[in-house]
Specification:
Layout: H1 4-25, H2 30-44, H3 62-84, H4 87-94, H5 97-108, H6 115-133, H7 139-170, H8 172-187, H9 202-229, H10 232-239, H11 242-257, H12 266-298
Length: 299
Amino acid sequence: MHLLFPLLASLLVVVSLILINRALANGVGSLTVLFLVNEISAVAFSLLWFSGGQIPAWQFFYQPFVIALLFMVGLMLTVLAVQQGDVSVATPVFGLKVLLVAVLLMLFEREALPPPIWISAGLASLGIALIQWTGRNHPRRLLLTIILALSAATCFAHFDVFVQRWAPMWGAGRFVPISYWMLGVLSLAMLPWVDFRPLKRDANRRLVVTGTLLMAAQSLCIVGAIAAYGDAARINVIYALRGLWGVTLAWLVARRWGGAEAELTIGTIVTRFCGAALLTLAVILVILTQESQVIVIAE
C-alpha cells in the first residue's frame, strides 16, 4: 500500500515540471519559481517535526546547512534544465540520481564497483545517447539540457548520501525540518531578484502556484514514505517511472495545449521513450543490486 506514495510522486513531479515549464515560457522568472518552491517546501516539511528526534551539539549544524545548499543548487539546476529544453529530455536524466548515489556510497566506503553498476552505467550512457540523437535540429540546446539535468541529479545524489549519513544522529523529525527551514531562510536572499509581476496574470499564477505545490507535495511523499516505512529500494524503483511519464505526459500535454514537444515526430518521441526506458532499467538494476547486497549482509 505504501508504494502508492512513490507512484503518486512520480506523476506529481512530471506534472509539476510541465506546469513550471509553461510558466517559464510565459515570462515567469526562474528565480521566482525557485523562491516559491523553497519557501513552500520549508512549510511542508515542518510536518515531519512531529515524528520526533533530538538536536545535537551546535558544531553539527553545518550538516543541515549543507543539505539546504545542495537542495537549493539542485533545484536551481532542475528549473534551468526544464527552462532550456524539453521535459521529455530532462526528466529521464534526473532518474540517474540513484545510479550516482550507488557510486558515491561505494566511493565513500572505498569498495570496488560490482559488475551490475558498470552494466547500469552502460545502459544509462546508451539511454542518454538515444535522447541526444533526437535533438539533431537543436543539438547544443539538448546537450545543455542533459548537462544541467545530470548536474541536478548529482546534487540530489549528494543530498541523499549526506542525509543517510547524518540524519540518524538527529532523527528525521529534526534533521529534515531544520534543513528545510535553513533553505527557507537562505532563499530570502533571492528576494531582490524575484519578480512577482508576471504572476498578476491569472494564467501564470495558476501555473506557478499549482506547479510549486505539486513539487513540494511529491518531495513530501517520497521523504515521508521512506521515513515511515523504510522501504527505500522498492520506493525508488516505483519513483524511477517518472522518466517514462516525463516523455509520454509531456508529449500528450503539448499536443493538447501546445509546447515544444508538440512539434516532435512520432519517431522522435518513440526514440526518447526508448532512451527513457533504458535509463529506468539502469536505475532499477542499481536498486536491485543494492537490495541483494543488503540481503546477503543480513544473512
